[in-house]
Automatic annotation (TrEMBL):
GO terms of molecular function: citrate synthase activity; lyase activity
Organism name: Arthrobacter gengyunqii
Keywords associated with the record: Lyase, Transferase
Pfam family for this entry, one: Citrate_synt
Protein name, UniProt field: citrate synthase (unknown stereospecificity)
The UniProt record lists the keyword Transferase: yes
Leading EC class: transferase
Amino acid sequence: MSTSTENQTPRFPTSLGTSTSTKISLLGQDLAQDLMGKVSFGELAFWLVAMRRPSSGELRVFESVLVALADHGFTPTAIAARLTYLSAPDSMQGAMAAGLLGGGSRFLGVTEDCAQFLAEKLAEHESPLPETDAEWDEMAAAAIESQRAKGKFVPGLGHPNHKDGDPRTPVLIGIATEEGLRGPHIKLFEAVGRMSGKVLGRKLPLNGAGVCGAALADLGLPPDLLRGFALLARAAGLLGQIAEERRNPIANDIYMAVDRNAGYVAPNLDS
């Protein structure tokens, strides 16, 4: 019998889910008997990525992040979902996808960008990590200066609406502190907020998307996957936006307002 690789059945390993004719297994558990009705969706989402079950404190922080990022009103992601649903009401998946595709560097993506920024600065720092606020402030000032020298913004710093402070930020930091999960990412992020005025000449608030990234990173979740969690949270918000669009349509008004107020400008063919 030939043992060549050409004749072997390919195998595609996974430690997530599988099924037989009588059983569905997920994460080594019997889905129907061990998970349904016994774990929350947030707990399962954490478990699927981290490959470990979160503690009660980790779950509280994690689900607080999901709540914080679910919906912010008529953001571009919500408008995109509503307008896509207007155009193709037979394509719920298209409307959801349209909104999720808008999660980038200005909306939702800040969660991941901030976590990566903080993780990079922590990795660059010679051990041991700071122990006092003064030491964290020194580290934060250097991090802000480095970004400014590169002509870049500090992710998570500033907010277009919450000029005097994002209401989500102190609440999430408080929850992490209560659960003993205020780690180095949050501590550095707090220091960035304290030092923004001194380094930049004006104090900027720490926004909710940024603190969510810091909190998730302190839970040990990979910084380069955190945009996925932001999108997971926003998927719930988008579904709510589409449900509201069905109850109380406004997408056509948005479309008509733009269309009827479009100002035609003749192209400059000489340029």
